[in-house]
Write a structure and sequence with these properties.
This protein is α+β, with helices and mostly antiparallel strands and about 90 residues long. The chain contains 1 helix and 4 strands; from the N terminus they run H-E-E-E-E. It starts with a helix and ends in a 5-residue tail after the last strand.
């Protein structure tokens, strides 16, 4: 796997985790699916995160990494809230 791909995945996963924390508090990643959409340099790229569906227990999220030329990488993830108090 190329360094570029790892950089893109790391940026997307970080943004998805932040959004999951905002939705659920303490959470656990259940699944993530990455898609390499186009070649390009991720340096200076912007990450956009969308809540597809969210409740107090589970969040379905989508993220896109884009630069001036368009979307470079995208990801979909499912997060589950961790039980509190135990």
């Amino acid at each position: 796997m190329a360094d570029r791909d790892l950089t893109c995945m790391t940026l997307l996963l970080g943004a998805l985790s932040e959004e999951a924390r905002a939705c659920l508090g303490e959470h656990r990643l259940l699944t993530v699916d990455f898609e390499n959409v186009a070649q390009g340099d991720p340096e200076g790229a912007q990450v956009d995160v969308t809540r597809l569906k969210s409740s107090s227990r589970v969040s379905f999220l989508k993220a896109s990494l884009r630069n001036d030329s368009g979307i470079l990488f995208s990801a979909r993830a499912i997060y589950k809230a961790l039980p509190s108090g135990n």
